[in-house]
From TrEMBL:
<keyword id="KW-0479">Metal-binding</keyword>
<keyword id="KW-0863">Zinc-finger</keyword>
<dbReference type="GO" id="GO:0005737">
    <property type="term" value="C:cytoplasm"/>
</dbReference>
<keyword id="KW-0227">DNA damage</keyword>
<dbReference type="GO" id="GO:0004518">
    <property type="term" value="F:nuclease activity"/>
</dbReference>
<dbReference type="InterPro" id="IPR036443">
    <property type="entry name" value="Znf_RanBP2_sf"/>
</dbReference>
<keyword id="KW-0460">Magnesium</keyword>
<dbReference type="InterPro" id="IPR036691">
    <property type="entry name" value="Endo/exonu/phosph_ase_sf"/>
</dbReference>
<keyword id="KW-0540">Nuclease</keyword>
<keyword id="KW-0378">Hydrolase</keyword>
<dbReference type="InterPro" id="IPR051547">
    <property type="entry name" value="TDP2-like"/>
</dbReference>
<keyword id="KW-0234">DNA repair</keyword>
<keyword id="KW-0539">Nucleus</keyword>
<dbReference type="GO" id="GO:0003697">
    <property type="term" value="F:single-stranded DNA binding"/>
</dbReference>
<keyword id="KW-0862">Zinc</keyword>
<dbReference type="GO" id="GO:0070260">
    <property type="term" value="F:5'-tyrosyl-DNA phosphodiesterase activity"/>
</dbReference>
<dbReference type="GO" id="GO:0006302">
    <property type="term" value="P:double-strand break repair"/>
</dbReference>
């Protein structure tokens, strides 16, 4: 009678009916090698030049940086031949070993009376209810909601800065750590480039979200706005502003959180001031004000709207933001008296060699019937540890080279927390 067999490549225990290849990695079975006249040493040779993933034990090709099964990044020592590492050293060196496996659970005392097995949807629902805060639960391409009975929503708006020459990989990695820390349900990005898109796409947090921009669309423009959602999205839409010479647009997402009313989330990057010679007056205020009014006119018919993004707004130049009846500025409501400067060349030491500029460029504007604003806060205000760059600046008629810290972006991010009534 045939028995189960263990795959020599990924260690998966295959059922007797799976005779030729492994169900997980499709590697030939040992029996297949023997039938072909190969010795057991040939099987081990097949694994030579591979590295074992610490998180799931899968043996990956030598050239790959991420595990093909669980997407865990290869640790430096994990890509060494097994003979170069002592087993005790391996297990003591990295707490992430086996991290993709869920904890063992005590078996129930009874099986279901009818012997039925949960469907995939029922299993996902049980996982969500058992540990809705575990980032490993519901990972992958499921794009299900972070909480099935969700009453509290977090929305993040972040201009990621398209300056790719300044530590873009480490900056985007730090931004990803902020996403892992705060776990927003919805994200509005501005100034995303094709390279930044690819960095995000290869990040572990990406798989928990549905993205408004396809890989093909990401290569069509130098930079763009992008929305990402853990919540069920009915549609993404994007409308360019007719008066924009910078390719600016209004991006919309119709989402329907479970146990909550429908919500329209919009983001934009309004026309930027670009003063330059000879007159230094290219501030594009009229265009910016017109785009703000156009956006609010489009959004105003919906009862629950979040309008977030880099508004490039200058209250002295542009006047008060043209909010309609029923709209509020979340920062003004929740943090009265605080300046809210999301672009600040004094507090953001990465920009300290630039001319002084302190503006509340990024905003959350809200019209809510069935939700209330709980909080709004800045994130990404701290330098990335042990990361610096050099910039030359003329001081006292001498050109000096300054060593400055690096932050995730030239803007700070804004995180809005809201809850259903």
């Amino acid at each position: 009678m045939s028995s189960s067999w263990s795959c020599s490549r990924c260690t998966f225990l295959n059922p007797p009916s799976q005779k030729l290849t492994c169900q997980i990695c499709l590697s030939p079975s040992t029996a297949t090698f023997k039938a072909a006249g190969c010795s057991s040493s040939s099987v081990s040779t097949h694994s030579a030049g591979r590295w074992t993933c610490l998180a799931c034990t899968y043996m990956n090709p030598h050239g790959s940086m991420f595990c093909e099964v669980c997407d865990t990044r290869a640790a430096p020592f994990s890509r060494l031949p097994d003979s170069d590492l002592e087993k005790d050293d391996l297990t003591a060196s990295d707490p992430s070993i086996g991290s993709v496996f869920l904890p063992l659970q005590r078996c129930g005392s009874k099986r279901p009376a009818n012997g039925s097995v949960d469907s995939d949807d029922q299993h996902v629902e049980k996982l969500a209810k058992s540990d809705k805060n575990d980032p490993m639960v519901l990972s992958g391409q499921l794009n299900v909601e972070s909480c099935l009975d969700q009453k509290v929503l977090k929305i993040l708006s972040y201009n990621v800065w398209f300056h790719e020459d300044l530590e873009v990989y480490k900056r985007m990695e730090a931004l990803g750590e902020l996403i892992n820390q705060h776990r927003p349900d919805f994200v509005c990005f501005q100034e995303v480039t094709a390279n930044i898109y690819e960095i995000f796409q290869n990040s572990k947090w990406w798989k928990a979200y549905t993205c408004s921009v396809s890989p093909a669309m990401a290569t069509e423009r130098p930079y763009f706005c992008m929305q990402m959602s853990k919540l069920a999205v009915e549609s993404f839409n994007c409308s360019p502003f007719t008066n924009s010479i910078m390719g600016r647009e209004l991006c919309l997402a119709n989402i329907k959180p479970k146990s909550c009313e429908a919500l329209l989330v919009a983001t934009t990057h309004l026309e930027s001031p670009c003063p330059g010679p000879p007159k230094w007056d290219q501030m594009f205020s009229n265009e910016r004000v017109s785009q703000a009014k156009e956006s609010l006119a489009v959004l105003n018919d919906s009862p629950n709207v979040i309008f977030a993004g880099d508004m490039n707004w200058d209250d002295k130049l542009d006047g008060a933001f043209p909010l309609l009846d029923g709209w509020v500025d979340a920062w003004v409501v929740k943090r009265p008296g605080e300046n809210g400067w999301t672009y600040d060349t004094k507090s953001n030491l990465m920009l300290s060699a630039n001319r002084t500029l302190q503006k509340r460029l990024d905003r959350f504007l809200c019209k809510l019937k069935d939700f209330k604003i709980d909080n709004v806060e800045m994130i990404g205000t701290e330098p990335i540890p042990d990361l610096f760059y050099c910039k030359k600046k003329k001081l006292r008629n001498k050109l000096q080279e300054l060593q400055l810290p690096v932050l995730p972006s030239d803007h700070y991010g804004l995180l809005l927390t809201m809850s259903s009534l």
